[in-house]
Write a structure and sequence with these properties.
Length: 444
């Protein structure tokens, strides 16, 4: 079914509510990436009433196909997967909370260890940032050392933002440039030291110059690891008795059934999984070798809602469905095809293009001065056609060939216009609102 019949009313009820939200909620929303300004300031629908498969309905009843961040990567099986939702509904009927513990956390721990035989023990949390903070606490306790070398984005907590104390640009290149460490105790300065991805020497130097006890990194984000990069890090960590942690909150289940490190055959000492583990329900995990994880018993890591039942129940069902459907293969193949088609479209209209990300988290950039304006224009025009779209697609199993074809049918003339703008047409006259924001920026 085509989306073209869909009459989209932009600048509707959602924008009105967002204006109110900005007065009531600092930052407007709890997640930077969901701020409407990141997509289409003053026009983005902002709020949803319903989400199902890869479709989203806004407050005015407009229906969109989500060809953007899909809840920021939480729903590989699509929104509201019937089997996962049924399992959750069953828990609601039986009870989500009690003084006694839920059995599901034990079974989930068992399954995650089965998928990652190098690990022996698991702790659960409900957000990726929490899982990262838990891992750092356990690792510091186990290593008896404080200094951490990092490469990637690892959440909002003090331990991580400490990397920007004294040098606001340290975290540039690690997903979110401009993150300010205001409110982070200055005493943490020097405890977290970033190294550059695919630059083994930069890590080696950190290890030579500092008493590093932990290396925490994303296995791969926008580019693939150079041959030997991950292997060299593993060797370095082992030789110096450093705990190696892979943060797979985002990369997990995108290309393999479990952590992406399985593809590269390099095993960490600890790992975090998050995002899609519960297909939209909050559940994240910290896995690790027994001798390290046991350190959790010598410190205090404990939280009420880490014991609720919906999270692990959703995860158990999600694992079952992902395994059955081989979802990681399907989303990888869809993502590869999207990347190739973006490339072909850019070639057709003689525009430069850079394709990045894991295939299932594919993104593009048009490296031209007006890129942010073009990106805004793409979102603006695709919204009118009933698509939530920017420059990255977090693929789910509900993104069928038919949907992808339709997306490209509508994207083609938009890219044609971008090309015309490079040849004299004025992009400013085509934009119906402000240009989208990039990275971290204050809202007011
Ligand atoms: C690799 C990685 N680690 C940690 C996080 C933080 O997770 P959360 O937003 O659930 O706290 C993210 C989120 O984007 C991530 O990509």
């Amino acid at each position: 079914m085509k989306n073209s019949g869909n009459k989209i009313m932009v600048n509707g009820t959602g924008q009105q509510l967002y204006k109110k939200a900005k007065k009531l909620i600092p930052g407007g929303t709890m997640l930077l990436s969901k701020r409407p300004e990141m997509f289409l300031p003053e026009q983005w629908p902002s709020y949803f009433r319903k989400a199902k498969g890869c479709k989203v309905w806004d407050l005015d009843g407009n229906k969109y196909i989500d060809m953007s961040i899909m809840g920021i990567g939480t729903n590989i099986l699509g929104y509201g997967h019937p089997e996962v939702d049924d399992a959750v509904r069953n828990v609601i009927d039986l009870g989500n909370m009690s003084t006694l513990n839920c059995t599901e956390e034990v079974y989930l721990a068992e399954q995650l260890i089965e998928l990652h035989p190098w690990a022996d023990m698991v702790r659960f949390a409900r957000s990726g940032g929490e899982a990262n903070a838990i891992a750092i606490r356990i690792a510091r306790a186990a290593a008896g050392k404080e200094k951490v070398a990092i490469c990637g984005y690892h959440g909002w907590h003090d331990w991580y933002l400490a990397a920007n104390l004294g040098d606001e640009s340290s975290l540039d290149g690690h997903l979110l440039p401009g993150l300010e460490p205001k409110g982070v105790p200055r005493k943490l300065k020097g405890t977290v030291l970033p190294f550059a991805y695919n630059d083994f020497e930069s890590l080696e130097k950190l290890v030579q110059d500092h008493d590093i006890g932990i290396i925490k990194m994303e296995v791969s984000r926008s580019i693939a690891p150079k041959k030997g990069f991950l292997e060299s890090i593993r060797k370095l960590a082992t030789e110096h008795n450093i705990i190696l942690i892979f943060d797979e909150c985002t990369s997990g289940f995108r290309e393999t059934f479990g952590g992406l490190h399985k593809k590269y055959g390099v095993e960490p000492d600890m790992m975090m999984l998050g995002k899609t583990l519960g297909n939209g329900y909050a559940i994240t995990a910290v896995l690790g070798r027994r001798e390290i994880m046991k350190a959790a018993e010598e410190t205090f890591i404990s939280s009420t809602f880490w014991t609720e039942r919906i999270g692990p129940t959703a995860a158990l069902k999600t694992l079952e469905v992902m395994d059955r459907e081989h979802s990681w293969e399907r989303i990888t193949s869809t993502g590869k095809s999207i990347g190739q088609r973006w490339h072909a479209l850019a070639e057709k209209y003689e525009l430069p293009i850079e394709i990045g990300g894991l295939p299932a988290l594919v993104n593009f950039n048009i490296p031209l001065d007006n890129w942010m304006k073009y990106k805004t224009f793409i979102t603006q025009e695709m919204l009118k056609k009933g698509f939530l779209a920017a420059n990255s697609v977090y693929v789910c199993t509900e993104h069928t060939n038919e949907i992808i074809d339709e997306y490209f049918e509508y994207l083609d003339p938009v890219i044609a216009t971008v090309s015309e703008c490079e040849n004299g047409k004025n992009i400013n006259e085509l934009l119906e609102g402000p240009v989208c924001y990039t990275g971290f920026r204050r809202l007011n």
